[in-house]
Amino acid sequence: MNEAHTAGAERPLVLITGASSGIGQALALRYAQAGYRLALVARRSEALQAWVDAQKWDDQRCRVYRADVAETGSVIEAGERCLAEQGVPDVVIANAGISIGMDTSERDDVEVMARTFATNNTGLAATFHPFVSAMVARGTGRLVGIASVAAIRGLPGHGAYCASKAAVVAYCESLRGELRSSGVAVVTLLPGYVDTPLTQENRYAMPFLLSPEVFADRAFDTIEAGTSYRVIPWQMGVVAKLLRLLPNPLFDRLLAGRARKHRQGEGRATG
Hints:
Layout: E1 13-17, H1 22-33, E2 37-42, H2 45-54, E3 62-66, H3 72-86, E4 91-94, H4 107-138, E5 141-146, H5 159-178, E6 184-191, H6 212-225, E7 229-232, H7 234-245, H8 248-255
Parallel strand pairs: 1-2, 1-4, 2-3, 4-5, 5-6, 6-7
Helix pairs in contact: 1-6, 3-4, 4-5
């Protein structure tokens, strides 16, 4: 997609969930820069609308939809409203997610895992659902799942998050096969460490940390190219592949004593 569009021509449309902060907000700015209309979805819709107003975007340029991605009906309804008010998006980015540490011996943390999967997995499928048939009928579109480099190998204390992001990779791979030859591309992005509210309270080193803006630039290029799978930055992809090759005893020894992700109530949990 060219960054400049002909005056008067219909601008393309992108829908982004989790757009009130972090990666989602950076992606919204990048797509606005490229001339897209925006459909932005967030649970904190008031804060998102205030941010949109600060950008001086009117309703023709951007609309805000409130939805809790953990509630299937809520996010599907937001998608249906987008279809009715703005039309079929060219790009749908299922970005909303949560990251909470867990300890399987704690009863409450089993519920944390259920909520993580409801948001990061069922919520992702529900985000795509309203648009699949319309995109297939049109013969074009891009569905983008935001996974994580944490999908590649399980980390102590990260069981819910790592498992959910591995499931994002597998789900998007399945969907890509289903939509093969339809004209609809499925793109899986695996961010490494990005400087967002989701990561700022992490208690461990975060190599190759990116700003949200740099991540958004690289993600935009990847999505525009229709690349099926990419780790951003590529250096984290190399690290993850090397960890994948380690024998289990060596991997376990390497991570022994590593600080764990905050459990519920210990730090921020939304992205």
